[in-house]
Amino acid sequence: MATAGPDGITGRVLKACADQLAPVFTEIFNLSLEQAVVPSCFKQSTIVPVRKKPQPACLNDYRPVALTSVVMKCFERLVRDFITASLPDTLDPIQFAYRQNRSTEDAIAHLLHTTNSHLDQRNGNYTKMLFVDYSSAFNTIIPSTLTSKLEVLGLSLPLCQWISNFLTDRPQTVQVGKHTSSTLTLSTGAPQGCVLSPLLYSLYTHDCVATSNSTTIIKFADDNVVVGLISNNDETAYLQEVKNLERWCQENNLLLNVSKTKELIVDFSTKQERSYQPLNICGTPVERVDSFRYLGVHITQDLSWSCHINTLVKKARQRLYHLRRLRDFKLPSQVLKTFYTCTIESVLTGSITSWFGNSTMQDRRALQRVVRSAERTIHTELPDLQDIYSTRCRTRARKIVKDLSHPNNGLFSLLRSGKRFRSLKANTERMRRSFFPQAIRSLNQETPRI
């Protein structure tokens, strides 16, 4: 049940009194939309700082989460669904957040496929990935700029005015423990914790797109990656894309956090020593790294997965301790199995379709040893990771095939027979074992075809 906002009204109360309150709130919601005005009591929020790190060192190490009225959350869901239904499915196709049938797994798979496809074409190609970090992205949205973009997208003027009113003159207080600050009224940003904020942010950034065929910008909310596909040592398009992003941020009031923005280079060429051009943003050099944790997955410059898998194994083994403690309390095996599925298997299989195919046998054995340890603890057979990987590959592939708006739908093209999908060309084992070629082979082995 949702936590009560500043008005103290809980979801439990609304649910218990739904029959009596529904007509009242329906009238209020309709009046609000007609007049393009959000009641001030609905805009009040209590900001609770949530730590981003175990030991915060500065204010930026906290995430300001807004506790808002549960009634307003219900209202926002209605508006969100209406806006979503009004927008074309093709809008900002490589924004993988806050959209149906999109996930972090899709964003990672798209990034890796874009990289592998380019590296697979010819020797000498390499890829640069710029993992972009923004400072308080949600809190810097300018309502007037947002509403202008929404009008261009075809949303009605009254709805745009309602959204502008929703984002302006918002009374906020900060609560830390039992202490509450004085009220401050803000007219900038979309509070983190509001139902509408993620959608509004994605619409605010929908026009931040690549301008060259050799570059792409992959987005998952405010986790953006600028990918430069470099051929013949020509980085001109990539460097220009970074400049375009810098200019776009200035025009849209987004602040690039250069200290947390990192560049990673994937280059398998062994015939020549390269001297890569240094990258500067706002006059500050960008740090070049050997690995980066993107959406929960450690991507390395050699696209190997030992670093990521070692992290998973370590985390899963820590949780095995709690599984053993629960066993010592004589809990039923079914309860222990549920605990394993939720807290250990979920760690081992996070975004598994993106990385398991290219993992080494040594890494797979390390993962499977965790499963075997859990089996000995529970005394119950548990799903094999290879089986989980194969099943999820097929499931994910079926969803992409059925979703014509998915950016990777075009990779699944039928042969003339209409019974099998065309295999993707792969010159290297790395490409052949990546998600999309594997998924196509898996679907082709099924009978009947989906």
From TrEMBL:
GO molecular function, a single term: methyltransferase activity
InterPro entries assigned: AlkB_hom8_N (IPR015095), DNA/RNA_pol_sf (IPR043502), RT_dom (IPR000477)
Family annotation (CDD domains): RT_nLTR_like (cd01650)
SUPFAM superfamilies: DNA/RNA polymerases (SSF56672)
Source species, domain of life: Eukaryota
Residues covered by the Reverse transcriptase domain: 31-299
Secretion signal, residue range per the UniProt entry: none
Pfam families the record matches: ALKBH8_N, RVT_1
PANTHER family according to UniProt: ENDO_EXONUCLEASE_PHOSPHATASE DOMAIN-CONTAINING PROTEIN (PTHR47510:SF3), REVERSE TRANSCRIPTASE DOMAIN-CONTAINING PROTEIN (PTHR47510)
The protein's name in its UniProt record: Gastrula zinc finger protein XlCGF28.1-like
Organism: Silurus asotus
